[in-house]
Amino acid sequence: MVASVLAFDFDGTLHDPAGTPSVPTEFFETLLRMRRERGLVWGINTGRSLAQMVELFDESRFPMLPDWVVAREREIYFCGSGRRWQPLDAWNHSCEKQIHGLFKHARALLKAMRQRVEEATGAQWIAVEGEPAGILARTDEEMEWIVGELQLIASAEPLLSWQRNSIYLRFGHRDFQKGSSLSEVARQYALDADACFAIGDSHNDLAMLDKRHARMVACPGNALADVKHHVAAIGGYQARAVHGNGVIEALQHFFPAN
Ligand SMILES: [Mg+2]
């Protein structure tokens, strides 16, 4: 029986590109122990695409694959037999449809955003198949400024949102982000926020570091100051250790060994 759903952000949380190995071996040992002691499923909740993650599982020498992946902060996939990734079609299609409709509806507003960004900054506006996909800024400070401007323009369209991760920003729908995706994953196991654990280091993790989606929230010691403040404010756990070791510390906090 599945008792808990564990969600890990990848870059900067579980994975440290400067680490050897980039994901600590002890992380997998901890998961295996927890799996023996209590039923759990675990997954990666990331802004990356599924194709990127599949490569990174190899590169980072994952000895086992996660049970699920949330890619691009909103697409859900489950690891099926033969290590095949099965999309959760109902959710993924509904998400794409609603985002497409929203972008169409908010066309004038998005145009105003693009003009503002292009006239005032050196950031790059990225469009895919004619739809606004995101923004790539040159620095964190530039993105900070852009987000402030977007907030002013976006107040007219409450469904329009974005996920920010340092100098990257992806436009999306308020109802499809790391938090709502985690709740949908849990729902597939007939569980709710009470059973969920989430850990992340950056702005795009705030949506899942939320008691509506995960009762157990944490951040590693290297998390952004904004994320640390948020986790402290809602009574979550701030690990002292950084990256993957911070993840292990947080797991030991919420799931002490029997
Ligand atoms: Mg991260």
Task: Kindly describe this structure.
The chain has 2 domains: 4-73 and 177-254, HAD superfamily/HAD-like (Rossmann fold), CATH 3.40.50; 92-173. The protein is 39% helix and 22% strand. The chain has helices spanning 25-37, 50-59, 89-105, 107-120, 140-154, 178-188, 225-233, 243-254, and strands spanning 4-8, 40-45, 68-71, 75-79, 85-87, 124-128, 131-136, 160-165, 168-173, 196-199, 216-219, 237-238. The strands form 2 sheets. The protein has an 8-stranded mixed sheet, with helices on both faces. Strands 6-7-9-8 form a 4-stranded antiparallel sheet. Helix 4 (107-120) packs antiparallel against helix 5. The radius of gyration is 18 Å and the shape is globular. Magnesium ion (MG) binds at residues 9, 11-13, 200-202. Magnesium ion binds at residues 9, 11-13, 200-202.
